[in-house]
Amino acid sequence: MSTNLGISDRDGTNLWQPKRGLNEWVEKGVKGLFALFALVSIATTVGIVLSLTYETIAFFSKVPIWRFLGETQWSPTFNNPQFGIIVLICGTFLTSLIATVVALPIGLLAAICLSEYAPEKMRRVIKPALEILAGVPTVVYGYFALLFVTPILKTFLPVEIFNALSAGLVMGIAILPLVASLSEDAIYAVPNSLRQGAYALGATKRETIVSVVLPSALSGIAASFILAISRAIGETMIVTIAAGQTPRLTLNPFANLQTMTAYIVQVSKGDTPAGSLVYQTIFAVGMTLFVMTLALNIFSFWFVRRFRQKYE
Amino acid sequence: MKSDFIQESNFSAMPTSEAILEAEKVTVHYGSFMALRETYINIPKNQITAFIGPSGCGKSTLLRCFNRMNDLIPGAKVGGKIRFHGENLHDRKFDKRIEEIRRRIGMVFQKPNPFSKTIYENIAFGARINGYRGDMDELVERSLRQAALWDEAKDKLKQSGLSLSGGQQQRLCIARAIAVQPEVILMDEPCSALDPISTLRIEELLHELEERYTIIIVTHNMQQASRVSDMTAFFNVKATESGQRQGYLAEYDRTEVIFQNPKEQVTQEYVSGRFG
Question: How many domains does chain B have?
Fold first, then answer.
């Protein structure tokens, strides 16, 4: 191919041969391939929402929504079934509350310690270690709660064998690395110039961290908190194993109870016939879970955008 | 006479003004790297002293010695003495009183670094942590007025400091530094991130601040040094036999002398733009 400008280079030679003939098609092909992969995740999400919605509508055509929201017992398998979702929400709320009470403060303090106080070497060792901790399978945590934490609690608290406290505490430990790691990222990302600015005014290290660094990292810290809460709400194995299978409307942390996720496990591992009312309850419960975590994530998204600082 | 300031053994008082800060044989290492070699300099009170020189000459390094900001850099070691009102700031007894030193010797940085707080809180923060007991509203207003930002900011004190323009942010940082009522303000290339108009405003501001504060300004802009400063210190850098580059104070004198009739050849070359 000759140069399509019709002029040769200054010295008359032609060392530059355009070789991009195929590129247009390669570009299009690559673009299409990537679009396809991107579509897979979107299609999956849409599929999940559709199947949830379909079965949920089927459920609510048999059970009016006011029963779902208004009843105070959850007994779909009884002869006289009751569908008070509040019972399962209460179980989820209690275990998640205990978990967040453990994970948020400890996680945040660990994050502050790691990013502000720990020497760089220590940070480089501990940070990956934390992320490994986040990778421990939750079924391991579940048995840790049931076989290790519960017996210890039993020595000084009137807990049942299955109880919300043990499951919540261990779930808190399970989500702690997430909080610590994400908050640490947010705190570490605060520009050093702000710390220097505070020090130059005569601030101590503590004043600098509390009044300058943490407020600047607020949006990232909040995002890590909300992500941790949604993880706690959706956590399944720990609560299934350690919190019990007894739907009960209680805020007593020593009691055996059932969370939304544990209920879904209970029904789906059994031999419930597809299409039956009990089968459809898990979709209604799943939809409730989905709506709750979606709401949290939307709130988190809004919050981060509202409070994110741009330093440049 | 005036060049007495750089003579190693002679610390004669400033003819026009007493020295508020005196550096005596100050050497700064970063790890094993010597950034600044044995520097002697006296900073006159209520005047503007400019530090000029090529990159790596140690001018910012020396500036950070005056409020012990080098303490924050891992591996930094400062030798020699920095006297503030005659007392050595690097003495062990001040290790527990660094906050006090930094309140009295404020600093403005190269890039505006307002906190992610409201304009009001940006200024009140320093006063609060240093235990200011007076009327905060009045202090905020006075500081903003002194930094020539009041008219632009008075209606948005509750807005974030980050919502201001770059030049306004830098004046906010100056206001923030003034609010803790320091005696000295150290400025590390305060205009290098600003446009010419914002730069001009800051320079005008410097002249107003001079009455009340001692100012040391590091600048790469020689016109700026000649416009704003009373005294100018020219720092240079030279390679040792081992190939390391060391900064040192080459010449220190009244600004007009440095720019019109310097004693050192190298100063002459630098200020006339022949190198650097």
Answer: 1
Is B186 domain-assigned?
yes
List pLDDT tens digits, range A124-169.
Answer: 998 888 888 888 999 999 999 999 999 999 999 998 999 999 999 9
CATH code of the domain covering residue B167: 3.40.50.300
Q: With cut-offs at 50, 70 and 90, classify the pLDDT of residue A53.
A: very high
Q: Give which of B115, B184, B185 to mutate to test A binding, by max A Cβ within 10 Å.
A: B115
- How far is the CA of A145 from the CAs of A37, A152, A172, in angstroms? 39, 10, 11
Q: Would you list the domain boundaries of chain A?
A: 29-62, 88-271
CATH code: domain A88-271 is: 1.10.3720.10
| The pLDDT of residue B4 | 46
Place of tokens 């992320």: A131
SS (H, E, C) A215-232: HHCHHHHHHHHHHHHHHH
B83 contacts chain A (CB < 8 A): no
Confidence band of B15 (pLDDT split at 50, 70, 90): very low
Query: pTM for the full model?
Result: 0.83
Structural domain contains residue B276: no
Mean pLDDT (whole number) for B216-240: 91
Close Cβ partners of A107 (under 8 Å, ≥ 6 residues apart):
A175, A176, A177, A178, A179, A180, A183, A224, A228
CB contacts < 8 A, A to B, total 69
ipTM of the complex: 0.89
In this predicted model, which residue has the larger pLDDT, B275 or A126? Answer: A126
In chain B, what residues touch A211 (CB-CB under 8 Å)?
Answer: 115, 125, 129
Q: Write out the residue range of the structural domain in which residue B102 sits.
A: 2-271
Tell me if B44 is assigned to some domain.
yes
Q: Which two tokens stand for residue B4?
A: 């007495």
Is B113–A215 a contact, with Cβ atoms under 8 angstroms apart? no
From chain A, the residues in CB contact with B176 under 8 A are: 197, 201
- B82 within some domain: yes
CA distance B129 to chain A (A): 6
Strand partners for B81: B24
List Cβ neighbours of A210 (8 Å cut-off, separation of 6 or more): none
Q: From the CA of B89, how many Å to the nearest CA of chain A?
A: 14
pLDDT digits (tens, 9 = 90+) for A250-279: 889 999 999 999 999 998 887 788 878 889
